[in-house]
Amino acid sequence: MPMVPIVDSILRGPEPGRVKAFVVYPMNALANSQLHELERFLEWGLPRDARPVSFARYTGQESEERRTRILAQKPDILLTNYVMLEYLYGPSWTLPTSTSMACPAMMSTTSWTPSGPSRT
């Protein structure tokens, strides 16, 4: 998946404290691969405080503590799978009206600020 348009959008309009892009993969292996590519593209050679875009993987592979920390930090880009996306929103959620579909595998929203996963 081309990440350049997503990263460009985040760099042009930084808004800390909100997830700007969900990247949803059908398999954890794809999310893992993309995580590695984002690390190479956005972190290698840069000091931690000079990294302009934050990102995290939110799958069943992370501990509950790590997932809680990810949600509290609200990275710019959240790599996930459809199971964890449903876990975040619950089984009967609908997309906010501000959601745009940049491509079939990516959802971008300007209003997602959950306090953490909850099941209702």
TrEMBL record:
Q: Which organism is it from?
A: Sphaerimonospora thailandensis
One of the record's GO molecular function terms: ATP binding
Q: What Gene3D superfamilies does the entry give?
A: P-loop containing nucleotide triphosphate hydrolases
Any Pfam family:
DEAD
Q: What is this protein called?
A: DEAD/DEAH-box helicase domain-containing protein
* InterPro entries reported for this sequence: ATP-dep_Helicase, DEAD/DEAH_box_helicase_dom, P-loop_NTPase
Enumerate the spans annotated as DEAD/DEAH-box helicase domain: 3-88
